């Protein structure tokens, strides 16, 4: 058994610590559906997952996987940019998940972008409940991804972020390896 986990495994570990049945969550980048499936299994039939993607093929794959696992009822698939999440989600959420970059096995010219992601991150922070987390897997081995990673780094250093718990996990011995950012909204009354 490997002690060092992948970025995806680590993100799922953090989410599993926070989420419980009945929670509301957002998968900001549904992709091939792995995170959507994981989130839907954690929040159960009484919870809700909003899964966003700009590509209908990604949502189609996600829908098929949800059907295979019997998890369709608690998921709303949204074909739109994650920057518009507030148009669809009005209640507080316990977690928001981002996998930045392009769809694995898809069109590599369709990627997330720094302006959209930063806007969506601000929206996520507004929607997040106390004690909730935002989990961002940053795949930055392409030009757009590197711009996005740098923009996120600048954003996370802003003074307003001092009231949030922020952690970055990276793999320093691999060139342009993905990194994981966890942003936690502190519970009221904690330092």
What is the quaternary state of this protein?
Answer: single chain
For the report, how would you describe the main beta sheet?
7 strands, mixed
Q: Give the CA-based shape.
A: globular
Q: What is the structural class?
A: alpha/beta
Helical coverage, percent range: 25-40%
**Unreliable sequence segments:** none
Lateral arrangement of strands in the main beta sheet: 3-2-1-4-5-7-6
Helical stretch tally: 6
Mean pLDDT score, rounded?
A: 92
| Strand percent estimate | 15-25%
* Estimated radius of gyration: 16 Å
Describe the structure in your own words:
This protein has six helices and seven strands, in the order αβαβαβαβαβαββ. The N and C termini lie far apart (36 Å). α2 links the parallel β1 and β2 (48-53). With 191 residues, it is an alpha/beta fold. It has a seven-stranded mixed β-sheet with strand order 3-2-1-4-5-7-6, with helices on both faces. α5 (114-127) crosses α6 (143-156).
Describe the protein's topology.
Blueprint: H1 7-18, E1 24-27, H2 34-43, E2 48-53, H3 56-69, E3 75-79, H4 85-88, E4 93-100, H5 114-127, E5 128-138, H6 143-156, E6 164-169, E7 179-185
Parallel strand pairs: 1-2, 1-4, 2-3, 4-5
Antiparallel strand pairs: 5-7, 6-7
């Amino acid at each position: 058994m490997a002690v060092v986990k992948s970025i995806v495994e680590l993100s799922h570990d953090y989410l599993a610590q926070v989420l419980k049945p009945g929670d509301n969550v957002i998968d900001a980048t549904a992709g091939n559906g792995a995170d959507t499936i994981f989130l839907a299994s954690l929040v159960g039939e009484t919870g809700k997952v909003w899964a966003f993607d700009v590509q209908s093929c990604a949502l189609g794959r996600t829908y098929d996987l949800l059907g295979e696992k019997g998890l369709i009822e608690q998921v709303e698939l949204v074909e739109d940019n994650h920057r518009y999440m507030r148009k669809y989600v009005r209640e507080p959420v316990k977690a928001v998940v981002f996998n930045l970059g392009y769809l694995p096995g898809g069109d590599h010219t369709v990627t997330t972008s720094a302006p959209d992601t930063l806007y969506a991150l601000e929206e996520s922070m507004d929607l997040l409940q106390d004690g909730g987390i935002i989990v961002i897997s940053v795949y930055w081995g392409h030009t757009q991804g590197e711009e996005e990673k740098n923009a996120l780094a600048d954003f996370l250093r802003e003074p307003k972020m001092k009231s949030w718990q922020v952690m970055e996990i990276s793999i320093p011995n691999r060139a342009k390896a993905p990194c994981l950012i966890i942003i936690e909204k502190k519970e009221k009354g904690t330092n």
